[in-house]
Amino acid sequence: MDVKRCPVGHFFDSRQHTNCPYCGVPELELLVPPGGRQEPPPATLTVPSSMAGPTLPSLTTVSAIDPVVGWLVCVDGAEVGRDYRLRSAINRIGGSPEMDICIGGDQHIARDRHAVVRFDAETTTFYLLPGDDQGLLSLNGVPLRHPQVLVPFDEIRVGRTTLIFAPLCGDRFQWTS
After folding, report:
1. Helix (H) and strand (E) counts in the chain
2. How far apart are the C-alpha atoms of 10 and 33, rounded to whole Å?
3. In whole numbers, what is the pLDDT of the chain averaged over residues?
4. What spatial distance separates the first Cα and last Cα of the chain, rounded to whole Å?
5. Do 138 and 165 form a contact (C-beta atoms < 8 A)?
6. Containing H/E element for 90?
7. What are 75-82's contacts with CB under 8 Å, separation 24+?
8. How far apart are CA 167 and CA 119, in angstroms?
């Protein structure tokens, strides 16, 4: 931020504005009334008598949240130490930012759907599935060719990246709807 001060005393970012945004542009007199910028009159709110009374808090439930159900944690590879949130249903793993889990810096990971972690909320079971690519994918040192159930601390090798699986949902905890 490159802070400047106008002749009137306003501070503004000169990288975003060529002139003070509070004072307006002097050459455009139609936009700036004589004596500088004037504030509009305050808005008034008229409340019908049928709505008069105390103000009560309103609690709104946000239903668009897709809560975390577990994590993958990078323990070896380009993003060592980083965690990736697993959401309900399908979690696509790849190198592309469009993937649910984007692992950057590993050229041996396919951009799209190298692997998939699926969470079945009804059975609280996690599955690891091979993706569309024939790239390197293993579970606990064994190459993965078919869907397998994941258990806590399973080691997933995607390309040259090693991830540890850590569930949140399972026998001891489940999000209620």
Report:
1. 0, 13
2. 17
3. 81
4. 45
5. no
6. strand 89-94
7. 75/155, 75/162, 75/163, 75/164, 76/161, 76/162, 77/103, 77/105, 77/106, 77/159, 77/160, 77/161, 77/162, 78/103, 78/104, 78/105, 78/106, 78/160, 78/161, 79/103, 79/104, 79/105, 79/106, 79/161
8. 10
Instruction: Please give the share of the chain, as a percent, with pLDDT higher than 70.
Output: 71
Domains of the chain with bracketed CATH = 68-167 (2.60.200.20)
* Cut 0.70: pTM above it: no
Residues 6 or more apart whose Cβ sits within 8 Å of residue 148: 127, 128, 139
Q: Are 42 and 28 in contact (CB under 8 A)?
A: no
Cα 77 to Cα 71: distance, rounded to the nearest angstrom: 17
Q: What is the mean pLDDT of each run of 10 residues along the chain (177 residues)?
A: 73 70 55 52 59 57 77 96 94 94 93 94 94 86 95 96 95 84
Q: β-strands 115-120, 125-130: how paired?
A: antiparallel
Please write the tens of the pLDDT for every residue from 44-83. Answer: 555 566 655 665 555 555 556 789 999 999 999 999 999 9
DSSP class of 15: T
Tokens of 22: 């509070």
Q: How far apart are CA 138 and CA 73, in angstroms?
A: 15
DSSP state of 8: T
